[in-house]
Specification:
Number of strands of chain A: 24
Largest sheet of chain A: 7 strands, mixed
Distance between the termini of chain A: 29 Å
Strand content of chain A: 25-35%
Oligomer: heterodimer
Helix content of chain B: 10-25%
Distance between the termini of chain B: 34 Å
Number of helices of chain A: 4
Number of strands of chain B: 23
Structural class of chain A: mainly beta
């Protein structure tokens, strides 16, 4: 697909956002009769939840669509009766929950799930153990659901809040690459808007984002699809994904119809940090009141480190591998980074906000307001090239003229900042530039963006 | 290759995509005759376009900028592997003594006040610097940087814009962030003035963000850092936020650490050296000079550069600045092949000198820089002093800096006593990823390595005079 067509698809993003909200509202009472429930916000992390913290994960197969037009065969864990999806279903539980996961294996080979970071996992009532065959060779890191319809029930206590990866423990190199992985979020008891049991980890509940980072070697997937052998020493990933999508698909909304198997968006939408609840008069509510940061939950499924660079501001790293960065005497061991490194299988949680530190705003000749204009002059239109997210103005909340024929996706003068892998070759797809690990952060004006 | 340009003319890559000579004969022949056969004429045509600058009143109203950068292409020299015949390196199109095709920036600030500046500026097309120029700012001192796109002389078919992305600059607004999806790019023979009000000291990097895989890998990457308020005897009042006198004497500090230089927690230093790590896949560079595109997921670099040079050239002396008559870079004495790679990575110190190393990873891969024999204290990462919000000291000692792509690390070491008997003691600073210690696979030490030389006399009879500029670069103007 050429770049122009893709950008035309992007232009539908906001319309689809609105549509999805309406659909969700309309279908609110008609969700599938399964234990877990789903609420689908336009962007941001959403997950299956269950009053009893019980989930059924069924292996499914299907295809993902990549921005060069390729389709790749994948496996996944789907919750309840839901169809195939990639990545596997995100699960949310609460600290202290006894979590029960029934794995239903429909594949023609044994499958299991390991829960790195969870202690004392029980399978069918007994502690999980690595599995060996008659010759003593290990066949699985944990108890399996046997091939062709087998079941296994895992139980554990989610004792510590945080971000966890769950993934196949059987023939891991193949099965994990095929898509048998997902995110498990444990929320602090009583504080769903804290990342950890620490008020300093409070985030805006509408701004919680999953960033599950993965890659695909299509040759492996083709070999599995056709029952052929594959030499892992030839592993050469060609597609590089955030939440199972590659750019520009990353910035479409959750559950966008034209990506039926890739439900998870990576677009973050925030407003400038503003701790003031009231305007200067102390009485009037501040429409820009926005006191909490966004929470980013990074999980790296790849076999190499990820180097994620969010433009616009540093992120405060608050936890690694679901362990808050706090010393034994309560010391603050968190730190700020413009480059977020996540090792293979690791998770990292970060708080992120954007501050309007210099308060640039245009002069208004009509009112005589001198404003606070940027101290340089922007060239005339014929002397620049334009990106599709540019508003035509340097100022937040201002829309201005763009040349005729410019693709203009900006709605109300909101800012956009790219967030991408700084292993720059990974922002591409196979034979196509700008088709990999790229997403965007959208910063709306303080008063919001009228639809 | 252009990222998004819906009104561009047919270019050579489009022509190649469209598949061929027949179409060219039918519709593209006039364009191709200019673009393919007579690039020099295209250059002149673009220069003729210059008077357009005056037709833009916004442009005419611009105040002089503090820094003047240009973006263009050019050549550099990397030690070839003479034992193995490579079709891609040395590049058969390169004019001697050069052998590698690059994209890059030049910093023309040293000649910006000359009356014939525009003429000199345009003469720098095809004369980019590798790595991109080192520059720095003072915290809370506004800086404007005018970026002019001179075009790519060897690739007149590429009508690429350029940008300057100040990587890590906090709370950037898109117009000054240089990411062209979110804002604007600078087309050929146009300019844009970026504005920076730096609020946070530390080590950063910058690069072009237009067609970033290609432009960054081709060389449009460089170091930039922000010196702390404390260097000027200032601090930010914790209550009012206003700048006030600091109790810490003015000096050289990596961060606003709030302690005197004798405190163990201090980030004071005597000498500073930027270590900009880049890499070079000679096939990709050959592709760009031969109108081809590499498959980026095949990425496999074969040269590893510190500040734009590979060992052993990293330890050669720096270039001699900018010629005010021609605007050209002046090559290091005896090394005309390094004319466009002026930054030395040789670290020199008197015993007891505190040396700040600013590591910047502009490669696409993890790197691991090691000093054999001298411990380092890591004081900062990503332009942040390693200190918790409650004051917890997070600095640490190591001899190995693991650094991810797009990350910066600040480390300080104290030069050990001189042992002799030579004129200086030598320590090696090198990449412990041993596959990056060669030049295109040639035998012997190469790539990401440089030397630290410790001279005999310590204070007060120091062998070496106080350092003036980072990396002892003679023309590193404020």
């Amino acid at each position: 697909m050429n770049r122009l067509k893709k950008l035309q698809r992007i232009s539908t993003v906001m319309n689809v956002c609105l549509l999805l909200v309406l659909v969700v509202v309309a279908l609110g009472g008609d969700a599938e009769p399964v234990v877990a429930t789903h609420f689908v916000p336009p962007t941001g992390l959403y997950c299956a939840t269950s009053p009893s913290a019980s989930f059924t994960l069924t292996t499914k197969t299907g295809y993902v669509t990549l921005p060069d037009g390729n389709q790749v065969f994948m496996w996944g864990f789907s919750e309840g009766e839901r169809p195939f999806q990639h990545p596997s279903q995100t699960l949310c539980v609460t600290e202290g929950d006894t979590v029960t996961i029934v794995l239903h294996n429909t594949l023609d080979q044994d499958v299991s799930i390991i829960f790195p970071g969870m202690d004392d996992v029980v399978a069918n009532g007994a502690p999980t153990q690595p599995q060996f065959d008659a010759t003593g060779a290990m066949t699985s890191l944990t108890n399996v659901a046997p091939a062709n319809g087998g079941l296994v029930t895992y139980t554990f206590t989610a004792s510590q809040p945080g971000t966890y990866l769950y993934e196949s423990g059987t023939e891991t190199t193949k099965q994990i690459n095929m898509g048998l992985y997902g995110a498990l979020v444990v929320r602090p008891l009583g504080h769903p808007d804290w990342a950890y049991n620490d008020p300093a980890t409070q985030f805006n509940p509408g701004n919680e984002y999953l960033m599950l980072i993965s890659d695909i070697d299509p040759n492996l997937h083709t070999a599995v699809e056709h029952g052929q052998t594959y030499d892992m020493n030839t592993f050469t990933p060609r597609y590089f994904l955030y939440n199972g999508r590659a750019f520009p698909d990353t910035i479409y909304p959750n559950e966008v119809p034209f990506l039926p198997n890739q439900p998870y968006s990576s677009l973050a939408i925030i407003k400038p940090h503003d701790p003031n609840q009231f305007l200067a008069d102390g009485i009037t509510t501040n429409p820009g009141y926005y006191p909490y940061p966004a929470l980013m939950r990074y999980l790296n499924v790849m076999a190499v480190d990820t180097a994620h660079h969010p433009h616009g501001n540093h992120a405060r790293i608050i936890a690694q591998d679901a362990a808050p960065l706090t010393g034994p005497a309560g010391q603050d061991l968190t730190f700020e980074k413009f480059l977020i490194a996540v090792g293979p299988g690791q998770t990292v949680d970060a708080l992120w906000d954007w501050n309007d530190v210099d308060h640039w705003r245009p002069a208004n000749p009509a009112t005589g307001d001198p404003g606070n204009p940027i101290p340089v002059t922007i060239p005339q239109l014929q002397n620049m090239t334009f990106g599709p997210f540019y508003s035509g103005s340097a100022y937040l909340g201002n829309l201005s003229t763009l040349p005729v024929g410019t693709q203009a996706l900006n709605q109300c003068g909101e800012y956009y900042h790219i967030a991408h892998s700084h292993s720059i070759h990974l922002i591409n797809a196979w034979g196509m530039v700008m088709g990999g690990q790229i997403t965007f952060t959208r910063i709306d004006p303080p008063e919001g963006c009228p639809q | 290759m252009t990222k998004i340009n819906f009104s561009r003319n047919l270019n050579r890559r489009d022509f190649l995509k469209l598949g061929g000579g027949l179409l060219g004969a039918a519709s593209g022949s006039i364009l191709l005759s200019k673009a393919l056969l007579k690039p020099e004429e295209v250059v002149k045509a673009e220069r003729v376009g210059l008077p357009m600058r005056g037709s833009d009143p916004a442009r005419a109203a611009q105040l002089p900028a503090d820094r003047h950068f240009v973006a263009t292409d050019g050549w550099c020299y990397l030690p070839p592997n003479t034992a193995v015949a490579s079709p891609y390196h040395p590049d058969d199109m390169a004019p001697p003594p050069f052998n590698t095709y690059m994209f890059g920036f030049r910093d023309l600030t040293p000649i910006a006040s000359l009356a014939n500046f525009l003429e000199l500026q345009n003469a720098q097309k095809m004369k980019c610097q590798t790595c991109a120029p080192m520059w720095w700012l003072d915290e809370e001192v506004d800086v404007t940087l005018r970026l002019t796109n001179l075009g790519l002389q060897l690739r007149p078919d590429l009508v690429d814009s350029h940008t300057l992305h100040f990587h890590g600059f906090r709370n950037a607004i898109p117009i000054f962030d240089g990411e062209p999806h979110s804002s604007v790019g600078v087309p050929i023979i146009r300019d844009l003035t970026y504005f920076y009000r730096p609020h946070n000291a530390g080590t950063y990097m910058y690069h072009c963000h237009f067609e970033e895989t290609e432009h960054m890998h081709m060389g449009m990457t460089g170091p930039v850092f922000i010196r702390p308020l404390q260097n000027r005897g200032l601090m930010r009042d914790p209550v009012t936020g206003l700048l006030v006198a600091s109790p810490i004497p003015a000096g050289k500090y990596a961060y606003n650490d709030g302690v005197v230089a004798t405190d163990p927690m201090s980030t004071a230093y005597d000498r500073e050296y930027v270590m900009t790590l880049t890499e070079l896949w000679s096939f990709a560079h050959w592709c760009d000079s031969h109108i081809q595109l590499p498959e980026w997921t095949d990425f496999k670099p074969d040269f590893w550069l510190l500040n734009g040079r590979s060992y052993p050239q990293t330890v050669l002396e720096p270039g001699q600045g900018t010629n005010t008559v021609t605007g050209e870079l002046i090559a290091p004495v005896g090394h005309p092949e390094l004319q466009y790679q002026p930054i030395s990575s040789l670290v020199t110190a008197n015993p007891g000198d505190r040396v700040l190393l600013r590591f910047i990873n502009l490669t696409f891969l993890d790197q691991t820089m090691t000093i054999a024999g001298i411990p380092m204290r890591v004081v900062g990462k990503d332009a942040v002093l390693l200190r918790g919000r409650d004051g917890t000291d997070q600095t640490y000692w190591t001899n190995t800096i693991a650094i991810d792509p797009g990350e910066t690390v600040d480390a300080i070491f104290t030069a050990p006593p001189y042992q002799g008997p030579g004129p200086y003691d030598t320590y090696l600073l090198y990449n412990r990823n041993l596959t990056r210690l060669n030049n295109n696979g040639a035998a012997g030490m190469g790539g990401h390595a440089t030397e630290i030389r410790v001279y005999p006399a310590s204070a007060p009879a120091n062998t070496l005079a106080p350092q003036v500029d980072a990396n002892d670069w003679p023309e590193f103007l404020a």
